[in-house]
Design brief:
It contains 4 helices and 6 strands, in the order ββββααβαβα. By secondary structure, the chain is α/β, with parallel strands linked by helices. Strands 1, 2, 3, 4, 5 and 6 form a 6-stranded mixed beta sheet that branches. It is globular, with a radius of gyration of 15 Å.
Length: 125
């Protein structure tokens, strides 16, 4: 059995990330068309991006997502952007060092767009 993390993010309509989520999972390798299956998961880490949720505090979609997520069984933290990504990366390294995402190419666009919104070149992670 191997350990890894699955990643997802929630974005505003403008494509700015307001929540990051990583969940540690157990992978079991199998023969066949699907080389592995997820056999269990642990408590996810959800990071609320402070600058984005503050800017979009009146947006009903962001507000609902924040309220719903805080009720879920997860480790929930509110961090500024410059501390959020390092925390996410440490969590991934501690839980298997492998990260899966269903749309990583789109997620990278959202990460870049959020970086530019937060501070551009002077606030790089």
């Amino acid at each position: 059995m191997k350990y890894a993390c699955v990643y997802d993010s929630e974005q505003t309509m403008a494509g700015l990330i307001h929540h990051l989520c990583v969940t540690p999972v157990h992978l079991e390798y199998k023969r066949g068309p699907v080389p592995f299956v997820i056999t269990g998961s642990q408590t996810p880490l959800v990071i609320e991006i402070e600058e984005v949720t503050r800017f979009y505090k009146d947006d009903p979609v962001v507000k609902k997502k924040t309220e719903d997520t805080r009720r879920d069984a997860c480790e929930y933290v509110v961090l500024p952007w410059r501390r959020a990504i390092p925390k996410l990366l440490r969590f991934v390294v501690e839980n298997g060092s492998t990260l899966f995402s269903h749309a990583w190419h789109r997620d990278l666009v959202f990460l870049s767009r959020t970086q530019e919104f937060i501070g551009g070149k002077h606030n790089r992670i």
